[in-house]
């Protein structure tokens, strides 16, 4: 798959786009609506896929992330319970599979210091751009300060870790559904970029030796346990199950 990096809207972005293209070892090309492309605009970085319609980008200031921050249920939601958030307990977390950063943003909003690990360079670039845009937003800058992004392989990062986190959170790529129409377009793109889940079992095993308090795995509600490793407990929401491995 060839992905081009394009600068649009302003000549000022050309140098930035070319530098990013060199960093990611991808071609720098003119805008082509028929290609899957990483696009730099004056507003944000985005990925355009002709099969998905509207561009995909990450926004912590508006849209779904802002709505979930305000109306997601606070510490009473299933994710917060699974992580172990409670009165007097705000764990520091490593999100080993950051993806688009949605769960990490929720946890940071609830007071957690969280390190986001993302090995895909394009997804990491989208995250970095979104965090940079949001850092000066007075409403959420205190949340963004709690989020640290590392473009790295999670297994390698955890193997070299010197300071153990309270919690390691893992959200493996969900199994591909037979009817792709059931999968939201941004998740389809995430599947396309990140590829199939091949190492969640090894990552879980390693994480359980490192986390001080617990490892949490996010799964579809009816999915089997990762690597047949039975959790200490599970917390369920409407369509999701959080398997908790207390260490």
How many structural domains? 2
Structural class based on helices, strands and sheet pairing:
alpha/beta
CATH level-4 homologous superfamily of the largest domain: Vaccinia Virus protein VP39
Radius of gyration: 18 Å
**Helix percent band:** 25-40%
Look up the CATH topology of the largest domain.
Rossmann fold
**Overall number of strands:** 10
Question: H/E element string?
Answer: EHEEHHEHEHHEHEHHEEE
General shape: globular
* Ends apart, CA distance between termini: 41 Å
Which strand order spans the largest sheet, edge to edge or round the barrel?
A: 6-5-4-7-8-10-9
Give me the number of helical elements.
9
Strand count, sense and barrel status of the largest sheet are: 7 strands, mixed
